[in-house]
Amino acid sequence: MKVLLAYDGSACGDVAIADLARAGLAAGSQVRVVTIADVYLPSETDVAATPASHLPEVEESRTLAHKAMDFAAELARSGEAAVRTLNATWHVSHEVLADSPAWAIIKLADVWEPDLIVVGSQGKSAMQRLALGSVSAKVVAHAACSVRIARSGPAGRAGLGADAPVRIVLGIDGSVGSATAISALAQRKWPTGSQVLVLFILDLRTVTSILSSAMGTGVDVRKQAQQTAERACQELRAAGLNAKPKVIDGDVRELLATETGHWQADCIFVGAKGMSMIERFLLGSVSSAIASRAPCTVEVVRISS
Q1: Domain with 200 in it: what CATH number?
Q2: Mind spelling out the 3-state secondary structure of 5-69?
Q3: The pTM is what?
Q4: Which InterPro entries match (predicted)?
Q5: Domain check: are 113 and 177 in the same one?
Q6: Which three-class secondary structure state does DSSP give residue 271?
């Protein structure tokens, strides 16, 4: 598995590194730590084309940019060193770029083609959860692969080791995107005893049309939702996970985060291409909503293109 980890030396960045230990990554995974200096580095061509009267300003700009790059390199090396302590089998490297952070991550991902991008979020206070960090929000919206937005999770589960069972909520809606999330979750290497709550939130404004189009008119929507959740559980159990289904009525915008908090989950998995409100939650005009409200790490699953 190829993982691109964005690291900026902040507390959220440190959380993103620690979260890797409980992300189900297999032995031998490749992890590239990238740190971005949010500066413009004038090229030699730019300097050559600059009128002599403006050369002092350009040279000063280059000096400041190089200092920022040097500092970013120090952070990247420290991030790489921290990741290496998590798993001796991982192949870890680092990279430093000068660019706008969100677009630098997205462009690097387009070239390197990771299976997963890991970014930190804002903090956990109510005020900080009002808005996901602008970098994280842009990466979630525009990346071509899965994105994991790391949080430290429930206070009662803080500091658990890499071998401790993980508690995961899988949000499904019967769509192709949900099937992708189920498969991604099943393919990871989770600690023994890890548990998954397969949560189908039955929002009749949207789910009825989804299941009816898939199964034909006259379908018993609740029965079909229960069967869909149970099939997901069967696939996860076959992968060694302890999975149980739950179907509830309500607004996915509220209940996914609420149920996750009640269940003391470490992580939420959702498909990025759901046909219900989950998709609009993640990718539409309110793309940051679920990640902003979630009390734990959120992984938005896409098939890498």
Answers
A1: 3.40.50.620
A2: EECCCCHHHHHHHHHHCCCCCCCCCEEEEEEEECCCCCCHHHHHCCCHHHHHHHHHHHHHHHHHH
A3: 0.86
A4: Rossmann-like_a/b/a_fold (IPR014729), Universal_stress_UspA (IPR006015), UspA (IPR006016)
A5: no
A6: strand
